[in-house]
Amino acid sequence: MINILSAIDWKEYSQNLDVFFNENLTIHPMKQGAEAEVIGISTPNESFVLKSWNIASKPNISFQYHLLEALSKYHLPVPKPIAWGMNRDGYQVLLTTFYGASVDQITEEQIQNIASLLSTIHKIPISEIDHISIPKYDFANYFFPDIKMHTDLYESLTQLITRAEIKQDQFIHGDFHLENIVEHHGMYSIIDWTNGQLGDKRYNFAWALTLLKI
Questions:
Q1: 0.85 surpassed by pTM
Q2: pLDDT at residue 133 is higher than 60
Q3: Residues 163-195: pLDDT tens digits?
Q4: Which of 60, 19, 58, 16 is CA-nearest to residue 42?
Q5: What does the radius of gyration of the chain's CA atoms come to, in whole angstroms?
Q6: What is the dihedral of CA 30, 32, 37, 38, to 10 degrees?
Q7: If DSSP codes are grouped into helix, strand and coil, which group holds residue 74?
Q8: Residue 140 burial (C-beta neighbours within 10 Å; 0-12, 13-18, 19+)
Q9: Which one, of 203, 63, 36, 183, lies nearest residue 121 by Cα?
Q10: Phi and psi angles of residue 181, each rounded to the nearest 5 degrees, phi first
């Protein structure tokens, strides 16, 4: 792992990375996402997560790095960013602190805690984080890619968007669900901010509820 870390072309970092080359590191597997490979890295005193995105997925990791910095300063429970860069295979990588394991089985009290987290996201004033240029995307094309290839579905979606009067004036996570909520010693944190953007908070809630029911 030391060789892998040293081979990364680090673009930005928030602390001296020499510790990762001098410490005795332990590697352990973690649950993988659809677009990225995730591994855990532990030193004798701390734990970290290294996430690398596959070549087909090209999110703006520089934005995600600075977004995590801003959200941490706002005291939202998110992983603290350590560094981001490019590995020798051309994949973008992000190194953060470790904040826990995915929540698999939930109680009514846990649902309330998670709902409170979602509410906290929506209360963040845009003015607090607008210095990192929060993106805004075309709703239909972003959340339903290639839907124009299916004329009947696209027509129905367009009608629903019009009726719902979709607004894109609040900060949203964009992919809020249980797989992106982690728990450590009873404390919850929100991970995977790849889809952070200006959007409609109702989408955040509807997406989370839909996946919960599934």
A1: yes
A2: yes
A3: 999 999 999 999 999 889 998 888 889 999 999
A4: 19
A5: 18
A6: -30
A7: coil
A8: middle
A9: 203
A10: -115, 125
